[in-house]
Amino acid sequence: VRLVESGGGLVQPGGSLRLSCAASGFTFSYYAMSWYRQAPGKERDLVAVVNIAGSNADYADSVLGRFAISRDNAKNTVHLQMNSLKPEDTALYYCNARRVVPPAPYRDYWGQGTQVTVSS
């Protein structure tokens, strides 16, 4: 099982980045996909989650209206479009896969993370 994130980097406030996560080794369409982030000294927080069909998404209040999560089940990828970035968005961003289709076990997989730094 692999989740490989890409697309992080250094961006100025107000800028945009698009994160991608390439999944392999499991049945992608059985898993809800999420992006989490963790800033230094803080807990890992949920940023956005998309359902297995890609038809419904939820967001943390702090990113609502600025970020958009999407998935492509044909390519086993999930993306996070981040616009109007702020310095407080600086964090290590992780891709997460959580099985939601029976049967159990409902496994959780994590990527290694991609760094996003918002600074002038």
Note down, in words, how this protein is organized:
This protein is an all-beta fold and 120 residues long. Helices cover 0% and strands 52% of the residues. Strands 2, 4, 5, 6, 9, 10 and 11 form a seven-stranded mixed beta sheet that branches. The protein has a four-stranded antiparallel beta sheet with strand order 1-3-8-7, with no helix packed on it. A hairpin with a 4-residue loop joins strand 7 and strand 8.
Question: Which features characterize this protein?
Answer:
120 residues; mainly beta; seven-stranded mixed beta sheet; four-stranded antiparallel beta sheet; 11 strands; 52% strand
Short account of what is shown:
This protein is 0% helix and 52% strand. By secondary structure, it is mostly beta strands. The mean pLDDT is 97.
Low-confidence stretches: none
**Whole-number average pLDDT?**
97
Proportion of beta-strand residues: over 45%
Number of strands: 11
Level of helix content? under 10%
Largest sheet: 7 strands, mixed
Shape descriptor: globular
Number of helices: 0
Q: What structural class should be given to the helix and strand makeup?
A: mainly beta
Order of helices and strands: EEEEEEEEEEE
Q: Give the termini distance in whole angstroms.
A: 37 Å
Over all CA atoms, what is the radius of gyration?
14 Å
Please specify the SSE layout and strand pairing.
Layout (H helix, E strand, L loop, with lengths): L1 E5 L2 E3 L5 E8 L6 E8 L6 E6 L6 E3 L7 E6 L4 E6 L8 E9 L8 E3 L3 E5 L2
Parallel strand pairs: 2-11
Antiparallel strand pairs: 1-3, 3-8, 4-5, 4-9, 5-6, 7-8, 9-10, 9-11
